[in-house]
Amino acid sequence: METILIKNIFHIGNIVDVLVEGNRIKTIAPNIVADATKVIDGSNKAIMPAFYNCHTHASMTLLRGFADDMPLFKWLKEYIWPFEDKLTAENIYDGSRLAILEMIRSGTVFFADMYWHHEATIRAAHEMGVRANIGVTFIEARGKAEIDNNFNFINSFKSPSDLISISVAPHAIYTIGKDLFQECSKVANANNLILHTHLSETLKEVEDCKMYNNGLTPVGYLHSIGVLSCKTNAAHCIHITELDAEIISERGVNIVHNPCSNMKLASGSFNTPLVEKYGCSITLGTDGTSSNNNLSMQEEMKFAAFLAKLSYNDTSLLSAKRVFQWATENGANAFGIDAGLIQEGKLADFLIIDLNNERLVPNHKLTSNWVYSADSRCISSVVCNGKLLMENGVIENEQEIIERGKRKL
């Protein structure tokens, strides 16, 4: 069994050693003596939980900067969807590897994806050693043949490793009809899979839903057709009512807040007080790079906190400690990953960060520095499932991945 011993690292106010055996944190204590496969000097460094990106479209790295500064539906219909129609499975593979490279460098060890050519993204995630939940995406207009192929893939799926899972991903209520949404839910339940969708992202979505569904909001509509549960991963949930929040809480739906994308697309301001009032499960995601335009979960934490404080004129709203929990522990919990905390017995997903980086000096309170000040330059090494994905800033095959990402379509 491979072991990693990290010596003299800062953890919750103390200098300790951390021993990793296999894929779990075995011991956290001073002066550990062990015959480790690898020994890391943790002096002037700290150990922190890694990030879990609960909603993204990884291979949209290929669309970074392609179509900016326009409303969501114009952006989708006139630019994004026509571009996506040209993407091949190999393009998706290249874009996914570029995204995973960016996520590793910025401290993310898990992403929940929703895109086309899911096999290509699965291949990329497996090869690069990250955790991933890959959405098999449904849009009604893409035709019956693709829908049938998607269901066949889901029903026969065999994961290449314990790190890779799939979800059933009906895109949104404005691209999926009632019957197909219910079929997606049925198949997800039968295979014990997450149902991953966009929900209540724009006012137009809400208004159209109410017009065509007897005044029901998108949340109310999905509840009425029986597809919301504790296995639902709902991205955005910006425009929700008190009743919506109550339904989300009662059904155990996981909300994925995407503050940077929401602001860039002017989709609206997330109602932090409302979802916190009802004790909703809340996580963070980056959305895709065409609407962000990066995959930094640190930025998502900072902007989530700042947007909440500004929107509700309350400087105490959404503390650094709370939004950090959204990005780490809550994200892991939402996908059944026994991680998100630096504790003995937990899966070994963590970051080693450089306390000598100017963004972390002085270190009055590390969590505050990490949320409000730090950037990816502060990350020295990244460990996922007990394996070093980045060591001292070096990631395997980085230059080849970047060169392939530069190719024009």
Q: Largest sheet, order of strands side by side?
A: 6-7-8-9-10-11-12-13
Oligomeric assembly: single chain
Sketch the topology as an H/E string, one letter per element: EEEEEEHHEHEHEHEHHEHEHHEHHEHEEH
Q: What is the helix content?
A: 25-40%
Q: Tell me the span between the first and last alpha carbons.
A: 44 Å
Rg, rounded, reads 21 Å
Distinct helical segment count: 14
The overall pLDDT average reads: 97
Largest sheet composition = 8 strands, parallel
The count of β-strands is 16
* Shape designation: globular
Tell me the fraction of residues in β-strands, as a range: 15-25%
Q: Which structural class do you get from the secondary structure elements?
A: alpha/beta
Ranges where pLDDT stays below 50 over 5 or more residues in a row are none
